[in-house]
Amino acid sequence: MRARPITTERLIEDLADRIAAYPRQEWVRVAIDGAPAAHPADLADALVEPLRTRGRETLRVSSWDFLRPASLRFEYGKQDPGAYYDDWLDVNGLTREVLTPLDPGGSGKVLPTLWDSVKDRATRAPYTVLPPGAILLLDGTLLLGRWLPLDFTVHLRLSPAALERRATDAWTIPAFLRYEEEVAPASVADVAVSMDRPRHPALIEEA
C-alpha cells in the first residue's frame, strides 16, 4: 500500500461526492471509523454541510451514544482493553435502532441516541424518520469487522507510533493494536486515510 497526500478540504469534497453519488431513492449508511485521537467525529461533522449542499438530507449519529451500561462496560474494571474492544459498544442496540431501519424496504425510523454514558441512563430521545435518499453519518471507534449493515465506510488510520504519541487514554492502545491485527480496517474500509499528520492526511491506496 502507498499513501497519497491530500488536503483536508479535498478529502471532504471527494468523500461527499462519493457518498452523494449513491442512488437518490436509497438511504445510505456511512461510518467514519477511527481511534479517538484520529478525530472521526470531526470528519463526520465536516461532511454534513457538503452533503446537504449536494441535495442529500443528512443525520449525524455517534456510536458513543450507543454504549452499554456501566455495569457491563466496567465489569472487568474501567481500564480493561479487552472489554473496551469487545464489550463497550452496544452493537445490537446500534443495529436495531439505527442501521436496520435503513435497510431496503425499512421504516426509516431511527433513534439518534440511546444511552447517556455520563449519567448512565437511557437518553429517551425521540425517533427521527428519514426520507428515502437521506444519509446517515455515523462516527465511532472499532466499528469495522462487527458485521454492521453499512453502505460506505471510511477508516482513519494511525500508525502504532502515532497512536502512542497521540492517544489520551494509553490503556486503550492494546485494543487498537488488536484491531489492526484481527480486522485490518484500512484494508476492509471503502476509503482509508492516514492521519499520522492530522493537518496533512493521505489516502491509503493499493500499490
Task: Describe what this molecule looks like in 3D.
The protein has 8 helices and 11 strands. Helix 1 (8-20) packs across helix 2. The model has no long low-confidence stretch (mean pLDDT 96). The chain has one domain (2-194): P-loop containing nucleotide triphosphate hydrolases (Rossmann fold), CATH 3.40.50.300. It has a 7-stranded mixed beta sheet. A two-stranded antiparallel sheet has the order 4-7. The protein has a two-stranded antiparallel sheet with strand order 5-6. It is of the alpha/beta class and 207 residues long.
First and last CA, distance = 5 Å
Proportion of residues in extended strands? 15-25%
Low-pLDDT ranges: none
Q: Give the oligomeric state of the chains in this entry, treating copies of one chain as homo and distinct chains as hetero.
A: single chain
Adjacency order of strands in the biggest sheet: 1-11-10-9-2-8-3
Keywords: Kinase, Transferase
GO molecular function: kinase activity
Protein name: Uridine kinase
InterPro entries: P-loop_NTPase (IPR027417)
Provide a quick synopsis of the model.
The chain has a single domain, classed as Rossmann fold, CATH 3.40.50.300. The chain contains 8 helices and 11 strands.
Features:
207 residues; alpha/beta; Rossmann fold; seven-stranded mixed beta sheet; two-stranded antiparallel sheet; 8 helices; 32% helix; globular; kinase
Question: Any chance you could write out the topology, listing elements then pairs?
Answer:
Blueprint: E1 2-5, H1 8-20, E2 28-34, H2 40-53, E3 58-62, H3 70-73, H4 81-86, H5 91-99, E4 109-110, E5 115-116, E6 121-122, E7 128-129, E8 135-140, E9 152-157, H6 160-166, H7 173-182, H8 185-188, E10 191-194, E11 202-205
Parallel strand pairs: 2-8, 2-9, 3-8, 9-10
Antiparallel strand pairs: 1-11, 4-7, 5-6, 10-11
